[in-house]
Amino acid sequence: GEGVGTDASNQPPSKSRPLPDFSAFIHSEPLAGGYGQTANAARAAAPVVTPDISDDGDAAASPSGTPRRPGTCRKAVRPRAVKPKLDMVGSGSSGGENGGQAFLAPPLNDAETSSDLVTSTPTKKKRKISTKSPRKKVGSRRKRQRIEPGTLNPPEGWEDVYELVRELRSDRSAPVDTDGGHALSEREQGEDVRRFQVLIALMLSSQTKDAVVGETMRALQRHGLTVGNIRNTSHEDLNKLIRKVGFHNNKTKYIKKACDILAEQYSGDIPPTAKDMMDLPGVGPKMAYIIESEAFGTTTGIGVDTHMHRMFNDLGWVKSTNPEGTREQLEGWLPREKWAEVNVLWVGIGQETQQQKEKALRKALDCSRPADALRLIRRLRLNVEKEAKKFGLKDEVERATSRGK
């Protein structure tokens, strides 16, 4: 320790904190790397001081022979939150006992380090943020409330439009009037056979034009359209008989399964209610309500197809996204005595405005309210001006329109 410190008797009093006792460190053998070595090397070379207080209060000697300082703990614990730093002692003008010389001091023990010397930065507890979307409670979605019949206010002016449609459909010349399910059954075969044929005609009608349904029904009737005969007909032969209708492969399976159910559960007849009919394969609400009305003469609902759904939304009578929604809303305000006729009536005018445009245009010009009729078929998506020009009716349409203004 000869080159470490100088005489500090002439130095002014140091304003820095008192230095701890490093006598044991200073008078020990010089470090191999000199006093300019790194802090880690200095700490590794420094003697480990683990004092023990004897009964008489004096510091006991350590096994290495180095006296232990009194007042220190047995186990030296290094602070975990502070990295080792170089303690530059005696630097600058303060000098102290070291006369301005700088040297590396070993790190202080916990017992020698007061709270004002070593402060650990408190770590903030990180909040765990979940990236998963919250689970929805099962059954939390509210069930849509069903619209009960007679609970809605009818649209303004609907009766005038409805009566105009009845006038335009008074001739009953649309395809549905001759090839619809109600018109194709063989009444002379008995009531149970007639009801069964109404069921089959409606099962064939989905995604198929009425003319094709009529042709297929007549082929089945020549083959023998009864429950027993269809059960005995092979799947392949039945599929050939109905091959012209849409989705004939599925309909073949549905008809075969339905015949088995009718024979086993209803003695060859059809179910008596629309609700029971919906249990048959391939039978939905639209078919069931029409079959119930045509087969048994009772009407508990309105059969609404996609064309009726489109027309009633075009007229603003309902506001729905599917035929079932249209049916519920229509039943909510339409008088019950009109439920039985509404399907055939409106399906027919829809067929005429889309498939028989010249006839629909001439009927509108010849009715008692031509201007209103022209406005109606326009709303049903018939291009009046284009078709009038095509069929040489432009002048008549212009005259009828001007009279209605």
Automatic annotation (TrEMBL):
CDD domains per the UniProt record, alphabetical: ENDO3c
Skewed-composition ranges (Basic residues): 71-83, 123-145
Feature: compositional bias, Polar residues: 111-122
Any one GO cellular component localisation term in the record: nucleus
InterPro entries: DNA_glycosylase, HhH-GPD_domain, HhH_base_excis_C, HhH_motif
MF-aspect GO terms: 4 iron, 4 sulfur cluster binding; class I DNA-(apurinic or apyrimidinic site) endonuclease activity; DNA binding; metal ion binding; oxidized pyrimidine nucleobase lesion DNA N-glycosylase activity
Region described as Disordered: spans on this chain: 1-156
Keyword annotations from UniProtKB, A to Z: 4Fe-4S, DNA damage, DNA repair, Glycosidase, Hydrolase, Iron, Iron-sulfur, Lyase, Metal-binding
Example GO BP: base-excision repair, AP site formation
Acetylation among keywords: no
Enzyme class at the top of the EC tree: lyase
This enzyme's EC code(s): 4.2.99.18
Domain HhH-GPD: 204-352
PANTHER family in UniProt: ENDONUCLEASE III-LIKE PROTEIN 1 (PTHR43286:SF1)
Family: Belongs to the Nth/MutY family.
Protein name per Swiss-Prot or TrEMBL: DNA-(apurinic or apyrimidinic site) lyase
Organism, as annotated: Odontella aurita
